[in-house]
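ESCALATION

Customer reports they have been waiting on this structure for their group meeting. Please prioritize. Original submission:
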Amino acid sequence: MILKQLSPNFLDPLHEWRRLFAETWGTFLLVLVAAGGGVVAARSGGAVTLGMIVVAPGLMVMAIIYFMGTVSGAHLNPAVTLAFAVRRNFPWHRVPGYILAQIVGGLAAALFLKTLFGTVGNLGATMPGSGVGSGTALAMEVVLTAGLVNTILGTASGARNIGANGAIAVGGYIILAGLWAAPISGTSMNPVRSLAPDLLRGELGTTWIYVAGPILGALIGVVFEWILKGQPTTSGSIAAQGSLDEDRPPPDKPE
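Update from on-call: job pushed to the front of the queue and completed.
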């Protein structure tokens, strides 16, 4: 029943390479801006402020959803891919490809920054703030990611993730989280965003916080989405997987 409601492009496996390319390029741009803010701030002697650093990734995610949300769903984050799969909006057999594409994109962005600037500014790494313990940073990443996942799943299940409302809601949430919580945990909410700079600068002491926190937060977000919305919808699946058909509005029916 659901398959009949989807566009032919959505079901064509030959389009998978486009989705993987979209996730690679989109994650590259996200990590470039998110990590690059810290790098350029250090390189410029503070010309880029903390406010600018936390606003930029939200605006970039907003732009990415606009230009490629219909291609891949614009996950850009292993925690988001996991959430969509657990929510049953995204097939598990496609999860490894998406996560690999995101890792490649993130590492390429970190390598680009390192090639240009070296490891200045710790290569834009996310770390607990001064005087903030690992447990506090972990708890913050869990809660912030749960809210992010709820924002993403909530807009997707209402057929809004592909379009203006989803882009504004998700980008706005990222900005909001960063504006108040960046001094505590760095507001990563994305394992790849943190893992890529850490790998290239050779410092993995706090990386576990930014892998475990977002994953746990994503699972909590899925549970909350079930409580709030119940069963997954066809529109949520189209938003998660990409319709490749911008002229066809996705239906909003329970699966």
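Sent to customer with the following note: The radius of gyration is 17 Å.
Escalation resolved.
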